[in-house]
Amino acid sequence: MYKAQLIKESSLDAYAVSPVGAEGLAQFMPGTWRDVSRQLGLVGSPMDAEIAIPAGAYYMSSLRNMWRWPRPEEDRYNLALACYNAGCGNILKAQTLCDDASLYESIMECLPLVTGRHAAETLSYAPRIREIYKGLLYE
């Protein structure tokens, strides 16, 4: 699944730079890279695939761990993906606006109230990664 996410993020281009400044295979924003690399004791750039791949996997794991039971596992992973794409602050704001909803679909209903037109990208993010993943399974 993580490879599918990297394909979505950067088309597996270790030197990809997004219009908003995200860098590398995992498309780390500078502040996120600083935090994650500090937590893991890494020295280097998000454009160094050898360290960016495990750093991104660690970051996704930490995001998934934020969304605890009683959510279904698929919702936990989808909420982690939404955090990765839109920032956890925005997803938590959407959750609050939706009366502290627990499930992914319910939280996503309120995301446009938080991120406006940018919500469309996040709403399609997890489904697109799952679609890429299915394609990888049947290659």
Task: Describe the protein in words.
The protein has 139 residues and is mainly α. The chain has two domains: 1-66, Lysozyme, CATH 1.10.530.10; 72-139, no CATH class. It has seven helices and no strands. Helix 1 crosses helix 7, helix 4 (73-86) packs across helix 7 and helix 5 (88-97) packs across helix 6. The longest helix has 19 residues, at 119-137. The protein is globular. The model has no long low-confidence stretch (mean pLDDT 97).
End-to-end gap: 14 Å
Mean pLDDT: 97
**Strand residue percentage:** under 5%
Total domain modules? 2
Q: Would you count the extended β strands for me?
A: 0
The computed structural class is mainly alpha
The helix tally amounts to 7
Approximately how much helix is present in the residues?
55-70%
Return residue spans where pLDDT drops below 50 for at least 5 consecutive residues.
none
The general outline is globular
Radius of gyration: 15 Å
Main sheet: strands, sense, barrel: none
Q: Give the ordered list of helices and strands.
A: HHHHHHH
Considering the chains and any ligands shown, give keywords for the structure:
139 residues, single chain, mainly alpha, 7 helices, Lysozyme
